[in-house]
TrEMBL record:
GO terms for molecular function: DNA binding; sigma factor activity. NCBIfam families: sigma70-ECF. This is Sigma-70 family RNA polymerase sigma factor. Gene3D superfamilies: 1.10.1740.10, Winged helix-like DNA-binding domain superfamily/Winged helix DNA-binding domain.
Length: 175
């Protein structure tokens, strides 16, 4: 829900509280390192503070922040220092339901494996899978955020799901 604030600082503070964890998670899906994701999140909110006066309400704050995040992550990925990154954390940090310790462990392992497989997808498939399934954005929000057509989005989701299905059914080829 969009809110009216009295100062730029209050607005940015609210945005950080509201979207900070989602921004870090999104950055992690691109960069695959928690510390780097946190660094990008800080940059996102610095840019947000600097550009808040130019925000035109043509999209939601969430979509605007995601767009800034995606662009910063893609810039980082193009740089030399991001060529051989090792995953040291997994995507989902959602809470675990309380059943038995064994079933909880199985749930954690299943999520970890799926998250790992999603992170192994090429970026163009990974980003649409994450936006659609993990961040629950609509088709319209994703196409606007990535600057792609509706048909391109559908095609990437279809291909991304097929790649995941093949990896899940056949196991990982590099094991």
């Amino acid at each position: 829900m969009e809110q009216i604030f009295y100062s730029k600082e209050e607005t940015v503070e609210w945005l950080m509280n509201e979207y900070g964890k989602m921004i870090v998670r999104l950055a992690f899906t691109y960069l695959k390192q928690e510390q780097l994701a946190e660094d990008v999140a800080q940059e996102v909110f610095i840019k947000c503070y600097q550009k808040l006066d130019t925000f035109r309400n043509e999209s939601s704050y969430k979509t605007w922040l995601y767009s800034i995040t995606v662009n910063l992550c893609k810039d980082r990925l193009r740089s030399w220092s991001f060529r051989n990154i090792v995953i040291n954390n997994y995507l989902s940090n959602s809470s675990i339901s309380k059943k038995t310790p064994e079933s909880d462990l199985m749930d954690i392992e299943s999520r970890r494996e799926l998250s790992q497989l999603v992170l192994e997808l090429p970026v163009k498939y990974r980003e649409v899978i994450i936006f659609f399934y993990y961040e629950e954005l609509t088709y319209q929000q994703i196409t606007q955020l990535l600057g792609i057509s509706d048909q391109t989005l559908k095609s990437r989701l279809y291909r991304g799901r097929n790649l995941l299905r093949k990896k899940l059914e056949g196991g990982r080829s590099n094991d």
